[in-house]
């Protein structure tokens, strides 16, 4: 079984509001994933465990591992509208199959894990064939935005940017807990997007900021777009 020690990937570091903005998930939705929810059945009031297990229940912050889990869960809930109790059951199944409390962040999930998860969802909610294919494709696409370390655990996440300067530049920004405490930075530069936008807000031109940080104007524009969509979230 994979051991989850108090390393940088599992340290409480992201306020819920920041995590929701980075991932473009409604704040109330993310909070429900963290707290669980009660629901009414013919047998009375029932409750299910949170979809995301924070490293310290006494602290509100998410870990980087939690951030990656929410990144994957977003598509399952928002695109396929699978009920939370069914998702929880599917996750419990994956926990057993992978012998870990965090199967969604394992590189193994990219291979046989996706098929196992979708097959389990089909058993729980009878997903149509077209729905199964769509879920597999969306999950596999999301997993292309994750990188794993040598132990097969997610260590870098490229958040989705609504607009990118040109084709093939959709991985300009990433979050990596070993760089700048896991804040969003420009890939290959390590420059926080917040630092870039602070200069733009102060009136500096894009070209001047690019020179200041040894970035390209396209990287600066991507940082501006990423921070702008965060502010609008």
Automatic annotation (TrEMBL):
<dbReference type="InterPro" id="IPR007367">
    <property type="entry name" value="DUF433"/>
</dbReference>
<protein>
    <recommendedName>
        <fullName>Putative antitoxin VapB45-like DNA-binding HTH domain-containing protein</fullName>
    </recommendedName>
</protein>
<dbReference type="Pfam" id="PF04255">
    <property type="entry name" value="DUF433"/>
</dbReference>
<dbReference type="InterPro" id="IPR036388">
    <property type="entry name" value="WH-like_DNA-bd_sf"/>
</dbReference>
<dbReference type="InterPro" id="IPR048708">
    <property type="entry name" value="VapB45-like_HTH"/>
</dbReference>
<dbReference type="Pfam" id="PF21321">
    <property type="entry name" value="HTH_66"/>
</dbReference>
<feature type="domain" description="Putative antitoxin VapB45-like DNA-binding HTH">
    <location>
        <begin position="12"/>
        <end position="91"/>
    </location>
</feature>
<dbReference type="InterPro" id="IPR009057">
    <property type="entry name" value="Homeodomain-like_sf"/>
</dbReference>
């Amino acid at each position: 079984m994979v051991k989850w020690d108090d390393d940088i990937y599992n340290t409480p570091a992201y306020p819920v509001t920041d995590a929701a903005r980075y991932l473009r998930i409604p704040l109330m939705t993310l909070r429900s994933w963290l707290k669980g929810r009660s629901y009414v059945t013919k047998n009375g009031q029932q409750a299910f465990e949170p979809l995301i297990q924070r490293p310290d229940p006494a602290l509100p912050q998410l870990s980087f591992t939690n951030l990656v889990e929410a990144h994957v869960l977003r598509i399952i809930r928002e695109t396929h509208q699978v009920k939370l109790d069914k998702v929880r059951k599917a996750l419990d199944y994956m926990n057993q199959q992978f012998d870990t409390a965090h199967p969604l962040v394992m590189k193994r999930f990219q291979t046989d894990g996706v098929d196992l998860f979708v097959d389990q969802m089909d058993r729980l909610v009878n997903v149509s064939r077209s729905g199964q294919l769509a879920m597999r494709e969306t999950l596999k696409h999301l997993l292309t935005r994750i990188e794993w370390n040598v132990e097969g655990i997610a260590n870098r996440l490229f958040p989705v940017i609504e607009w990118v300067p040109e084709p093939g530049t959709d991985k300009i920004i990433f979050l990596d807990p070993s760089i700048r405490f896991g804040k969003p930075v420009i890939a290959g530069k390590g420059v926080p997007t917040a630092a870039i936008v602070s200069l733009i807000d102060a009136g500096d031109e894009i070209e001047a900021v690019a020179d200041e940080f040894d970035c390209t104007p396209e990287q600066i524009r991507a940082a501006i777009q990423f921070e702008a969509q965060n502010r609008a979230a």
